[in-house]
Amino acid sequence: MKKSIMRVVLTIILLIGFFCKKNQPPELIEANFPSTGKVNVVVDFKLKAKDPEGKEISFKLDFGDNNQSGWSPYILTESVYTDTHTYQNPGQFDINVKIKDIEGKETEWIKIGKIAIAPLEIGEIFWIFTCENNGETAAFYSTPIIDEQDSVIYVACEFGHLHAIKFNGIEKWHFSLLEEERVVSSPLMDDYKYIYFVTEEGKFLSLTKEGNLRWERDLYNSFYASPALGKFNEIYLQSEDSIFAFNNTGELLWTKGVAGGNNSPIVDEEGNIYFASEKDSSIFSFDANGWLRFEFRFNSPVVNSPFFINSKKILFGLEDNRIICIDILGETLWSRNLNEPIFSSGVVLDDSVFYLITKYGSIFQGDVNGNFLPIISVSCDLTSSLVISENNCLYFRASWEDEEYDTLYGIDLNGNVIFRTPIPGEDESEDWEILSSPKVGPDGTIYISTAKGLYAIVGKGKSKNTSWYSFRKDNRNTGRR
């Protein structure tokens, strides 16, 4: 009898617990939408949520621009809900969502991310990324690298940080040196997506794409030039008085005591490395094992980093205004005088036509036979390297010694100016003649380092798929043909 009573009591308790069980709000499982978009272009949102009691659910979105969706029709739990929105103004917007079940039990607002909406006008500023420390804003000297697959930009600042920035301008992570050391040269990404950079004082580091330190080496040299990537992912660096070869695990392969400068090395298809020396007025080449292939000296300093105009021909400039073309065996093919020195690297349109910009802002179209055609001159004191887009736009930076602001130019191949965008200039007190160069992302956005941060500017088309389309050849800054 007592057992029967106990069973009845337990049954009643269980029934009361069942009927009094508190209804829980739905739980967000995933939310997918692009990190960037453009004004007046539809943005797609996809969301999925689960109701603990298995009830049907409804979604409500806040798009961050003072617009909200209404509650959606109820759908089955764990079904995919889709919505769209068109932004009317540029900017960065926080996206939030509420979810409720069919009985009206709803969540609080849940932040699901941020979207950066670009203006449609070419040349307008999309967003600005800054690095602040103790009330000071870092200058960015290096030219960024762009991982198009993972939609991340990597760039260094003067505080000794390497920043990973998403395409919407939000920092993903940053790596900080234990001791603050300025980074002037540009980072490099190898074929395995490992990142390499060197500080001005000679710390050489490798990171994973997640920002974890792989290794660090002290080279005890001053570095302003950017590294190059070898055929088998070797890393080559040029300091003020030495050159270094490392494998990608950080092992020193060889080093040579050769005077350098601001010139960055390049690598051909066979893995041979070419170095230019401003201090020694020379160009020289080593094979991957460190054996000297050739050396040629001039009566004027080599003032830019060499670049390939095709697989067999290399171009570089001298301080006395000459342009020299050599083949990969070191034979001089031709020499021309453009009346202004070339301090930056050019870009290739195809295997026979290329474009150069002089230190003072004159752009020339050249061909493999040494014929040059003037395109435009903007009359400045210093320029960056060029980058060419798939729409045949040339972008470059021009600087004036007495001006606070530089200008990012966009021109077509006939020399017509498409846009001029002011950007913060570099510190006039610096004694090197290096300007960070623009890079173009897969959606056409132009990224350029400035004295006040990394600027994202609306462009026209992604980078042109040629053999040498930007500073250091490509968006990974490999310097490798």
UniProtKB/TrEMBL annotation:
Q: Where is the signal peptide?
A: none
The identity of this protein, by name, is PKD domain-containing protein
- The source organism is candidate division WOR-3 bacterium
Q: Which Gene3D superfamilies match?
A: 2.40.128.630, Immunoglobulins, YVTN repeat-like/Quinoprotein amine dehydrogenase
InterPro entries on file: Ig-like_fold, PKD_dom, PKD_dom_sf, PQQ_rpt_dom, Quinoprotein_ADH-like_sf, WD40/YVTN_repeat-like_dom_sf
Stretches assigned to the PKD domain: 26-104
Q: Note the superkingdom of the native organism.
A: Bacteria
